[in-house]
Amino acid sequence: MDDTADAWLDTELAGRALADERLTRRLRKVLAQVGGAMGQSIPLACQDWANTKAAYRFLSNDRVSEADILAGHFLSTHDRIAAHEGLVLMLHDTTEFSYQRQRPEAIGITKSVNSGKDKQGRLRSHTVCGILMHSSLAVTTDGLPLGLAAVKFWTRDKFKGTAALKRKVNPTRVPIEHKESIRWLENLRQSTVLLNEPGRCVHIGDRESDIYELFCAAQEAGTHFLIRTCVNRLAGDGDHTIAEEMAEVRVKGLHRIEVKDKNGSPQQAVLEIRYRQIRVLPPIGKQKRYPALTLTMIHAEERGTPAGREKITWKLITDLPVRSRRDAVEKIRWYALRWKIEVFHKVLKSGCNAEEAKLRTAQRLTNLIALLCIIAWRVFWVTMLNRCNPNAPPTLALTRIELALLDHAVPDKAPPTQNTLAYYLHKVARLGGYLARAHDPPPGNMVMWRGMMRLVDITFGAMIGAALVGN
To answer: What SS3 state is found at 371?
Structure first.
C-alpha cells in the first residue's frame, strides 16, 4: 500500500478508465477532494475556483455517468467477495434524496406529501423534488460490508399515487417491465453476475421486494433470496392461500432476542417460530407466463403484547431449505442484517450530506451521489471492520503514515501488547470524539466519520510540513 493520504482510491479505482485518461485523473482528484472533506460543500472541498470549476465540469460532463464512476468500485467489490469464504448476503433497498429548487423540473419528482389544510379545511399536497436510488450492498453473514454491487438512479416527470393507479388498472396484470419495480430484478441480475458465484449469494429485501417475478428471476440466475413477504398468495392447487396453510402449522420452536423500545431501553422478546415448505402460485393474471414455485415460509411472531414498541411479526419467504429450528433462526438473523443497508443510506445522507448539494440538474446530482456512495461505503466498512475483524493488521485500512501520525496525535499511557487494527481504529474514533471508556460500546459511523476527517487534515498538514522542512 502506498503511503499517501488517499491510497485507498488506488483500490477502488484500479483497472478502470473512463472515456480518456484526463477524465480518469479528474475522477480520482474529485473523489480525493470530496473524500477529504466529507460532508462539506464542493467549494470547501476544492479550496479554490479553478478546482471547483473543474469538479463542476466533471460532474456535468456528458461522457461521465454514475455507472462509469462506480465501475471501479464494483470491480473492487468483486475482488473482496472472491477473497471472502462463505455466503454473501446481498441487501437491496430504495432511498430518496430530496431537494428544494426553484426549477424542480431539472431534477424530477419523488412523491406527493400532505401539506396540511387550507382556510376552507381542504387537504393540500405538494410534490417533492428529488432523486430515487436503488442500491445493492454485499455484506458477510457477520455484517461486514464488502461494497456495492449495483446502483440504479431515476427520477419521475410526474408522480402518480398508488391509490389512483389502482382505480384505473390492476397492478398485478401490468408487466413488470412497465413498472418501477423492474429495478429489483435488474439489480439482482447485475449483482449476481458481478459475484460470479450465484449459489453463494442470498438476496435480501423488505416487503417492497415481495415480487413474484423476482422469485423467478432468482431461480433463473441460480441464486437465492430471503424476502419479507406482504402478499397473501395462492398456494397448493389454488384452492387456499399461504396464510390459511400457515395457520395450520404448529409452533416449532422459540427464539429469544434483545430489542429496544421507543426510548432506547433494552428489552427481551420471545419469538414463536413456524415454518413450512409450500407450493406458491403466481398472480392469476400472470399464471401463463410464470411457473408455480416450491418455497419455504418462515413466520416469527412475538409472544404477548410489548409495551412501548410495536409487536414483532416477521413473515419471510425463501427458496433456501429450512429443516429445523436452527435453520429458521439462521434465516431470521440474516434478514435482521438488512438494517445494514439502512445504516449505509444514513451515512450517505447524514455523514456525507448528500441532500445538501446545490447542483441544479439530475445528472450532476447522480454523479455526485455516486462519488459519495464510495466514500460512505468506506466509512461504514471501517466502522464494521473494527467489530468484525479487530485483530487484522492495521495496514488493511490505514497507511503507514497515518499509523505513525496516530501514534503521535493520540498517545496512550501504556503501549499495547499488539498493534492491531482495532487499536488504531479506536485512535481514529478518539479523534472524532469517542471517549473509549471501559463500558462504552464500539464507536459508530458518525464518530468514525469525524475521526477520519480529522485524520485527513492531520495527514495533509504533516505532508506540507515535511515538504517545508525538506524531510
So the answer is: helix
Q: What is the pLDDT of residue 162?
A: 47
Whether residue 58 has pLDDT greater than 60: yes
Q: List Cα–Cα distances, 462 to 33, 402, 409, in angstroms.
A: 17, 10, 11
- Residue from 277, 271, 250, 452 nearest 351 by CA: 452
The span from the CA of 53 to the CA of 440, in Å, is: 44
Cell digits for 436? 473509549
**Model pLDDT for residues 434-460, shown as the tens digit of each residue:** 988 888 889 999 899 899 888 988 988
Segment 81-104 mean pLDDT = 91
User: Euclidean distance between the first and final Cα of the chain, in Å?
Assistant: 20
Identity of the highest mean pLDDT range in 128-132, 144-148, 392-396:
144-148
What is the C-alpha to C-alpha distance for residues 33 and 389, in angstroms, rounded to an integer?
A: 29
Q: Are the C-beta atoms of residues 279 and 297 closer than 8 Å to each other? A: no
Angle at 347 between CA 130 and CA 344, to 5 degrees: 90
What is the DSSP secondary-structure string of 146-204?
EEEEEEEEE-BSS---HHHHHHHS-GGGS-GGGSTTHHHHHHHHHHHHHHS-GGGEEEE
Task: Look up residue 380 and give its three cell numbers.
Answer: 461504514
